[in-house]
């Protein structure tokens, strides 16, 4: 029998990580979107999103893991909006490309953390471009420096989330729930 | 572990899953483009009729929670935009999002969804992962709500709100993800599931007359809402 690249456990773990991403997004995003501040939703969601992504990537490790998680997540987001599907997938492809080229997978601690942060940072420009394409009148008057500030805020929050994810991965490892590399 | 549904199988339950997904996607997408409250009310009205036909009954507490949530959303939006119409439309758009996809998810049996996805060219593992997200999202959302309530009952920890979110919600949710993974993987492997093999289906799902009628009714609601938005009063 031919062996699949991903095992059943990998698919289930990626699916459950996507569920966790969806749960935290459904809690935090409704409270940030009405304030109409560019990047606020991404910055707040980045804190929680990168936390779960780091744990997911530490567990999966193989090249393509980030694309698997974000691919499942984006397909679910497709039922909400084509724009959301687009920027989630673009963020996933962007960070996966960089991490696969530089680290060839997600072994160690740096690659998962960097992958999660790059994913969160990559989503914002993609979201802006797609939103501008669909709703140009809403985004045409935004000053460029706002995007830089927003990206810095996303970098800060997602880095904090990634570090918290690494800390919890250690706790999960001590509890015997997650196998970490020495 | 799976959600148990006491609701009887109605015509909405018997529809092809892709028909319901398509309607949910179109309604959610259209809701993004609409900004008149009346146009959004047409879409919301259609979804409420679907809710009634599917015999999905919410408790007064659930209705109150939804009402409170939408009130907070519209108040925040009003504070940001100082526009009542915009704030109302925003809350109604959220109401369409809250009803369109979850109602259709609640009325779709996992076996039906599995059969439908096994007919697509998606890899078997990916199709299974999508079914898991579809079914376990309401379950994990409920667990997250209980975790938040438990953290609130315990009171502020030494680090304040940040530590309460971290210790009270994020860490338990991470353990929850691992726990579900272990149990679901075991259940799938015991039933002989392997991502390397394609699933077969004894009785493939087919769209019927009810799907055509439902799609036509949804299309009519979408056209009416678009007319109210761009041509109407």
List the helices and strands and how they pair.
The complex is a heterodimer of chains A (182) and B (233).
Chain A: H1 8-32, H2 40-60, H3 65-77, H4 82-102, H5 110-134, H6 136-139, H7 144-174
Helix pairs in contact in A: 1-2, 1-3, 2-5, 2-7, 3-4, 4-5, 5-7
Chain B: H1 11-14, H2 17-33, H3 37-53, H4 60-81, H5 84-106, H6 110-118, H7 124-154, H8 161-190, H9 209-230
Helix pairs in contact in B: 2-5, 2-9, 3-5, 3-9, 4-5, 6-7, 7-8
Provide key terms for this protein.
heterodimer, A: 182 residues, 7 helices, globular, B: 233 residues, 9 helices, flat, disordered N terminus
Number of DSSP helical runs of chain B: 9
Q: Give me the count of strands of chain B.
A: 0
String of helices and strands of chain B: HHHHHHHHH
Strand content of chain A: under 5%
Structural class of the secondary elements of chain A? mainly alpha
Report mean pLDDT of chain B, rounded to a whole number. 81
Rg of chain A computed from alpha carbons, rounded to a whole number of angstroms: 16 Å
Number of domains of chain B: 2
**Oligomeric state as shown:** heterodimer
Helix content of chain A: over 70%
Give the CA-based shape of chain B: flat
Amino-to-carboxy terminus distance of chain A: 33 Å
Low-confidence stretches of chain B: 1-7
Largest interface: A-B, 51 and 53 residues
Please provide a written account of the structure.
The complex is a heterodimer of chains A (182) and B (233). Chain A is mainly alpha-helical and 182 residues long. Chain A is 77% helix and 0% strand. In chain A, helix 1 packs antiparallel against helix 2 and helix 3 packs antiparallel against helix 4. The model of chain A has no long low-confidence stretch (mean pLDDT 85). Chain B is 75% helix and 0% strand. Chain B is built from 9 helices and no strands. In chain B, helix 3 packs parallel to helix 5 and helix 3 runs antiparallel to helix 9. The interface between A and B is large, with 51 and 53 residues.
